[in-house]
Write a structure and sequence with these properties.
- There is one protein chain.
- With about 325 residues, the chain is mainly beta.
- Helices cover about 10% and strands about 30% of the residues.
- The protein contains three helices and 19 strands.
- The strands form eight sheets. A three-stranded mixed sheet has the order 4-6-5, with no helix packed on it.
- α1 links the parallel β8 and β9.
């Protein structure tokens, strides 16, 4: 076989991240064939049963490289063979995060670490109606295993998106499909009191509630996964999005492995915007005094504005 490896450490455009393999329908290498020996010509010829002289090999729009089922298995040289499955494999292990100055609603999601519990649907194959539980149901059934851009406005948006992807948005086993084995639910991303993003990967099993995984009516236990990070800037192929090297550098300390149970990785410190100015005033005796006025950005509002805190320091 052939091993395809992408560490996601090179390049800044979408086509340098993840693995997207498509087998052309004209491909002949590595596929199934009937081999027919010609005594007269002393050589083999190959076919897929078009003449009716040999068993039919029906690729069925798939390929031996990517099919997930072959009937019969193992093949019987006297019977027709049918492949079933896709003709492509997409291994998603990288995501892009884009800041927006407009309000962003990433929606609620059930968090097994605490808060409101998971509210299952009517049965084990029904998506919940509760929005937070429905988002969790989508996630544990592969809903985050895609290359859609993650858009954030606040540091809390970014923290939550990073945590969701680390838990439910990575093809950890490289199979090209999502399964319970790809869930890494005990990964935690927090923002420390000093303004650092911190990620931990506990060596603990996790439980997926009953009826959360489609068709599974009992609790499913999953194992923790070793992780590895490569932080790169993002640009688009059209050249209309340039690299944000400063923001990328803030997270470069995440680079490298984060094995289960190992130490916590932390980003550089994020700080709120602050400005200060000196104001000179004179008292009734004509003495000059300098006041320091400091403005510290507190938060952003839903309508796109900012809230600031003003501090006035008076000399003793």
């Amino acid at each position: 076989g052939i091993d395809f490896i992408n560490t996601n450490s090179d390049g800044t455009t979408d086509n340098m991240k993840n693995i997207d393999l498509v087998v052309a329908n004209t491909n002949t290498a590595g596929e199934l064939w009937n081999a027919v020996w010609s005594q007269q010509n002393s050589k083999f010829t190959f076919n897929t049963g078009e003449t009716g002289m040999q068993p039919t090999i029906n690729r069925n729009g798939s390929s031996l490289w990517t099919a997930n089922k072959m009937t019969p298995n193992p093949p019987n040289g006297n019977n027709a063979i049918t492949l079933n499955g896709p003709d492509r494999a997409k291994i998603i292990t990288a995501h892009k995060y884009i800041y927006s100055s407009n309000p962003v609603d990433i929606g609620p999601m059930y968090n097994p670490d605490g808060g409101p519990g998971f509210q299952a649907g009517a049965n084990q194959t029904t998506r919940p109606t509760d929005p937070a539980s429905a988002a969790y149901w989508d996630a544990v059934n592969g809903g985050l295993l895609n290359t859609n851009a993650r858009t954030f406005r606040t540091t809390e948006d970014l923290r939550e998106l990073l945590q969701r992807d680390a838990r439910y948005g990575v093809d950890y086993d490289g199979s090209g499909t999502f399964a319970a084995a790809d869930i890494n639910q005990n990964v935690k991303v927090v923002v420390t009191e000093n303004g650092n993003f911190a990620i931990s990967n506990a060596n603990e099993k996790s439980d997926i509630p009953a009826n959360a995984i489609n068709g599974v009516g009992q609790v499913t236990q999953t194992d923790p996964k070793n992780m590895s990070f490569n932080i790169t800037a993002y640009t688009n192929k059209e050249g209309t999005v340039s690299k944000n090297d400063a923001f990328t550098a803030m997270f470069k300390s995440f680079d490298g492995p984060l094995v289960i149970g190992s130490q916590i990785k932390e980003s550089e410190q994020f700080k709120l915007s602050a400005f200060s100015a000196g104001l000179e005033i004179y008292d009734s005796l004509g003495s000059k005094h300098t006041l320091e006025v400091q403005f510290v950005k507190q938060s952003t509002t839903q309508d796109g504005g900012n809230e600031w805190q003003m501090i006035i320091r008076v000399p003793e």
